[in-house]
Amino acid sequence: MTHGKPPRIAVLGAGAVGCYFGGMLARAGAPVTLIAREQHAAAIQRDGLRLHTLAFDERVHVAASSDVARVSAADIVLLTVKTLDTEAAARAAAPHLRPDAVMVSLQNGVDNVERIRSASGIDAVAAVIYVAVAMSGPGAVRHSGRGDIVVGNLPGQRHDLEWIPGVFEGAGVECRISKNIQAELWTKLIINCAYNAVSALTRSRYRGIARDPWTRNVLARAVEEAAAIATASGIELDRPDLVDSVLALGEATMPEATSSTAQDLARGKKTEIDSLNGHVARRGAELGIPTPVNSTLHALVKRLEEAHA
To answer: Which CATH superfamily is domain 182-308 in?
Structure first.
């Protein structure tokens, strides 16, 4: 896809991740519409988006709505809903999408593109995001680490991706194209399997988890199990030193991060744990490979979900 003018962008499911990336794009002058829950959309319509990052604290003027039909004007739809809402969001968007619109899945988990296609027929672009963000109030997002994107074609896909990095880099968001997006997706899943549940269960930021000898051991075991499942699933991981990389992320790269799982539980919301440690546990059962740490972390978070329901 080529554009003579900046592409129009809709962010579907604009929570913390969607508001951060959509806000960065809008701040750079891109025509963006945030499609969010009514509470957030109303606050953004009234006051603008409060974008508090490591580099600045500003109110960004950006269009906002709670109506999914607003995707109809978009050249690019960034899907940022939680994984448990993937199919419903894809089905809701499909009747309104222009034939030449491109949907990019900025979500956790490794199977969203397949689930989007199965639910709606939309052939989305797979992406991996690294960012530490949280909603700090209606229409307000606080950023505490990283903020970069990796996109790529899954086997069998032939999307033209060359233009996508320029859209984000013009807004100060690093974006690169990967020739092995499956490995990128699994690497991010492995990181999430290490930190998300532990952060939620211990109510800790990543630095504390990575430095404590007890939780360091849990992280290492979770990583080793998930990496074994990836390898058995035919994924060629690019990082042989995954445990060290995961620990370094918590100690140096995103030390102040609190996992999305922790944030969801604190708000009494359903988490994405079924698509994280739960995915590894289910895949391990299918392959006959034990995953005791990931299975335990999944079970404990599910119990907290039920307790808060």
So the answer is: N-(1-d-carboxylethyl)-l-norvaline Dehydrogenase; domain 2 (1.10.1040.10)
